[in-house]
Amino acid sequence: MYKIAKKRVLNPTVTMMDIEAPLVAKKGKAGQFIILRVDKDGERIPLTIAGCDVENGTVKIIFQVVGATTMALNQKNEGDYIEDFVGPLGCPTKTDGVKKVCIVGGGVGCAIALPVAQEFHKLGAEVHSIVGFRNKDLVILEDEFKACSDKLTIMTDDGSYGRHGVVTLPLKEALESGEKYDEVIAIGPVIMMKFVVATTRPFNVPTTVSMNPIMIDGTGMCGGCRLTVGGKTKFACVDGPDFNGFEVDFDEAMERSTMYSDFERHEREETCNLFRQEVK
Ligand SMILES: Cc1cc2nc3c(=O)[nH]c(=O)nc-3n(C[C@H](O)[C@H](O)[C@H](O)COP(=O)(O)OP(=O)(O)OC[C@H]3O[C@@H](n4cnc5c(N)ncnc54)[C@H](O)[C@@H]3O)c2cc1C
Ligand code: FES
Asked: How far away, in angstroms, is 88 Cα from ligand 2 center?
């Protein structure tokens, strides 16, 4: 069992937790993830390692409440326990030789992008971050991004905070104005990553995307997380989650991500009803 050492609500649908898991904290690196189960009958879900505190033996996770399991996790409080917390899984983000990087995060993808930006900053690279949200109320981690970015651009779809528009707008402007990035790293909804790649491709800037397909075992055995990359089958849990964006078949990834929609809707409704009965 793994204790929730700290819980902080970042916005109405996004929560941060520090989980006591000293062995994971010792080994976890930016770009890797854990798989947890909230209780013994729960499903496994992958969440990115948003930070490790080796001294306190805790691992930070930041999650958006989207369905049954994230709802059940969000109902837990400081001092409560969760059943399983396995990791670190996946490959760490590659940082070798990168002196100037542009990190592009969308929505809760910013939670995944933050430790990557922090790692590049720690290594002395120049970090430009572009983060996008639907509106002002959903903006998260602004101070944390400010602290590790040489330049931070916040975008909102409705213009209620930062600049009005999508993340590809300032990215295109930067590339057109002659910014020379060694790498662009995009983390967010698959559709956003597809458009980031469409933006960087004409400039031939190496572009890495962090893929988030359905994962079950997280060990390369079940095939649930398979993707086509460069015409070959890859497993995001062991070969990724980072991949060369120019080689990813985004359309196939989007199609596969909706495979369990009906089942997920049913589970979400069940969890919601149980929760409502509990709090009455
Ligand atoms: C490597 C990786 C890292 C991730 N990191 C984060 C993170 O740091 N923060 C965060 O908020 N989200 C992250 N996600 C997404 C997160 O795993 C899903 O939001 C979560 O599984 C939803 O589960 P649910 O039961 O609450 O919702 P459901 O209603 O079951 O599903 C809602 C949506 O979540 C996704 N999802 C559901 N089950 C899984 C699964 N087993 N594996 C992958 N995706 C699933 C699907 O897109 C689905 O449509 C990550 C996904 C991957 C693959
Ligand atoms: S989650 Fe099973 S192969 Fe990747």
From this structure: 14
Q: What is the third-level CATH fold of 100-257?
A: Rossmann fold (3.40.50)
Residue reference for tokens 């997380």: 225
Largest CA distance in the chain: 59
CA of 213 to the centre of ligand 2 (A): 9
Helix (H, G, I), strand (E, B) or coil at 15: strand
Q: SS3 for 65? A: coil
C-alpha 219 to ligand 2 mean position (Å): 6
pLDDT digits (tens, 9 = 90+) for 267-279: 656 655 554 444 4
The CATH architecture annotation of domain 2-89 reads Beta Barrel (2.40)
| Domain range annotation of the chain | 2-89, 100-257
pTM assigned to the model: 0.88
Residue among 36, 86, 221, 243 to mutate when testing ligand 2 (max atoms within 8 A of CB): 221
Q: Which ligand is nearest to the CA of 187?
A: 1
The answer to whether 21 and 50 are in contact (CB under 8 A) is: no
Q: Which residues contact 66 (CB under 8 A, 6 or more apart)?
A: 13
Q: Which of 102, 74, 216 is nearest to 167 (CA)?
A: 102
- pLDDT (tens digit, 9 = 90+) per residue, 205-224? 999 999 999 999 899 999 99
